[in-house]
Design brief:
Alpha-D-Glucose-1,6-Bisphosphate, Chain A, domain 4, seven-stranded antiparallel beta sheet, 7 strands, 4 helices, alpha+beta
Length: about 160
């Protein structure tokens, strides 16, 4: 008998009108071009850049216009142009917590004239009692779906 993981991972897929290499570059190095200021972690100042350091073990963080930084997590796997695995260390209150580790895996697969991008945010059960509410937030239109729409539009430019 199989057991179902609760809460289930959030899975999203989007077709991007760009080559696999371009799709990977825009998602990773170009994240600051499509990540909205509304999704910043600091209340004190505006978002300057969303940064994923391009290597296994690299940092994933936000830099604010005042130079301050807010950690999001790290890079667990860096496999351009096919895959990136990010460690998300934000809790359900959207603050960095080194004891929280969920995963965001993004796969980039050539498809026709573009690239299929598949995102899975998993291990949400590690958030304990806040896991279901967190899942609802990242699965809502303002969560990964909306972010991937912004990403796909930027990648197609």
């Amino acid at each position: 008998m199989s057991t179902q993981i609760r809460p289930a991972p959030v899975r999203k897929s989007v077709f991007v009108n760009a080559s696999q290499a371009q799709a990977f570059e825009v998602f990773t190095a170009g994240m600051g071009r499509w990540w909205p200021n509304s999704h910043k972690l600091s209340e004190a100042t505006e978002l300057d850049a969303q940064i994923i350091e391009p290597k296994q073990g690299g940092r994933w963080y936000q830099r604010m216009i005042d130079g301050s930084e807010c950690e999001i997590g790290s890079v667990a796997a860096w496999e351009p142009p096919a895959r990136v695995l990010l460690i998300w260390q934000l809790n359900a209150q959207w603050t960095f917590d080194p004891d929280v580790t969920t995963e965001v895996e993004v796969l980039f697969t050539p498809e026709g004239s573009g690239t299929r991008v598949e995102l899975e945010h998993r291990n949400l059960e590690r958030l304990g009692d806040t896991a279901e509410g967190f899942r609802e937030a990242i699965d809502a239109p303002g969560g990964w779906s909306g972010l991937l729409e912004l990403y796909a539009a930027e990648a197609a430019r």
